[in-house]
Specification:
This protein is α+β, with helices and mostly antiparallel strands. The chain has helices at 7-22, 34-43, 107-117, 123-134, 199-216, and strands at 29-30, 56-59, 81-92, 95-104, 139-147, 155-167, 170-183, 186-195. It is globular and about 50 Å long.
Length: 218
């Protein structure tokens, strides 16, 4: 990649998209177990999942107390129980993958959460609303859309937001993709940040990773 952007912008984008994808307006019950955390750790992105490159990895526990809602989209969460959580971020040459996994107590809870939070027409406006609040005056959302995903034996959605970042008199289009996977008792969110010009390669990688993550879910 030829250009770089500030870490604060990337952090804001990941926080906004990750929070909105989880839609924690009504918080889940937290009852972490060693088995649940182990299952979550097994589900996040690994170095072996990525291709060549000087990938730098950072483990980070998801913020389970985070609450993010938006007008008209406040799905119920308090009857869901999280028993495991883990996060891992990988970055190399201007591309960043932020993966987070939550393990719920039962597969039925994953299906219920998916139907409440992801399905329907309210999620895209909610993503845009939360992200717009996090952007500074020098950055603007160009568009946000849902991308098609080939058939995968899991619940899968892929959303793309394009942001134009302005710095030093230059406008740089960035893509921020949110891949959401639900399988068995596990919910996984993979947030990708990269230059918009690399969108074709990024999309191919995300589809391949969606298959890997869906197989890995416990």
């Amino acid at each position: 990649m030829r250009r770089r952007w500030t870490g604060s912008l990337v952090a804001a984008l990941i926080l906004a998209l990750g929070a909105a994808a989880a839609a924690l307006a009504d918080r889940e019950q937290i009852a972490l177990t060693s088995a649940g955390n182990k299952a979550a750790s097994a589900a996040v992105l690994r170095r072996s999942d990525l291709g060549a490159g000087a990938w730098q990895g950072t483990a980070k526990m998801p913020d389970l107390n985070q609450s993010a809602g938006c007008p008209g989209h406040n799905p119920k969460q308090s009857d869901l129980v999280v028993v495991g959580a883990a996060g891992k971020t990988w970055a190399s040459n201007g591309v960043q993958f932020d993966s987070q996994a939550q393990v719920l107590r039962t597969p039925e809870m994953v299906r219920v959460d998916w139907n409440r939070t992801i399905r329907g027409s309210k999620l895209l406006p909610c993503l845009k609303y939360n992200l717009q609040k996090s952007l500074g005056s020098n950055n603007r959302i160009s568009f946000i859309t849902r991308l098609p995903v080939p058939r995968i034996p899991a619940l899968v959605r892929l959303y793309r937001t394009v942001v134009v970042a302005h710095a030093n008199g230059k406008a740089t289009p960035l893509l921020i993709d949110s891949l959401v996977v639900g399988s068995r008792r596990t919910e996984i969110t993979l947030t990708t940040t990269a230059l918009y010009e690399s969108r074709k390669a990024v999309t191919r990688t995300e589809i391949a990773l969606a298959r890997v993550l869906a197989r890995r879910a416990r």
